Amino acid sequence: MAELGNGIDLISFCFRADPVCGADGVTYWCGCPDAACHGARVVKTGACDTGNAGSASVPGQALLLIHIVWLFLLGLSLLVGVF
């Protein structure tokens, strides 16, 4: 969510994926209004080719995977009665 200069928040509602690539290298999945809401200039239609296309970084994805595995093991240990 971005904020206009007058303090009004902009919210972009996306009902259909319409990806565009912003000049900042981020893919905005809700199209031009989403990019404009974040103050980015659109450089091409479709997802960005370079980097991670605006998704979470690889270390962030690895951290998420570690948390998922940890929660799974914790839940399994609770079912078995270790804790």
Q: Mean pLDDT, as a whole number?
A: 77
Classify the helix fraction into a percent range.
Answer: 25-40%
Count of individual beta strands: 5
- Quaternary state reads single chain
Question: In what range is the share of β-strand residues?
Answer: 15-25%
Q: Give the C-level CATH assignment of the largest domain.
A: Alpha Beta
- Run of helices and strands: EEEEHEH
CATH architecture descriptor of the largest domain: 2-Layer Sandwich
> Which structural class do the helices and strands define?
alpha+beta
Distance between the termini: 41 Å
- Rg for CA atoms: 19 Å
Low-confidence stretches: 1-8
Note the overall shape.
Answer: elongated
Can you characterise this structure?
- The chain crosses the membrane at residues 62-82.
- The chain is built from 2 helices and 5 strands, in the order E-E-E-E-H-E-H.
- The chain has helices at 32-37, 58-80, and strands spanning 2-3, 9-10, 20-22, 27-28, 42-45.
- The protein is elongated, with a radius of gyration of 19 Å.
